[in-house]
Amino acid sequence: MDILDLCWRTLGSRRATLAILFVLILALLCGAILPQRSPGLSLDPAEYAHWRADIQARYLQWADPLINLGLFSVRESFWFTIPLALLIVNLVLCTLDRLEAARRRLRPTLQDLVLSFTVVPQAQRFRLAGGQDSTLAKLAELLEDRRYMVSIQEGSADCYLTAERLAFTEWITVLANFAMIVIVVSVILGPRLAHREPDIALAPGQEHRLQHAPSLTIRLDRFQAELYPNGEAASYEADVTVLENGSEVASGRVSPARPLWHNWMSLHQFAHGPLITIKAADTQGTALHMQTLAPAGTVIEEATLLLSEEETEGYLSIPDRNLLLRVVFQPETVAEMRASPSLLVQAYHGGTSELVFSDNLSGSGTLEIEGDSYTIDWGQYAVLGFTSDPTIALMIVGAVVLLASTTITIFFRPQHVWTALRSQDGVVEVRLLDPCEEHEGMRTSEFRGLAAEIRETLRGT
Question: Beta 355-362 vs 342-349: how paired, if at all?
Answer without folding.
Answer: antiparallel
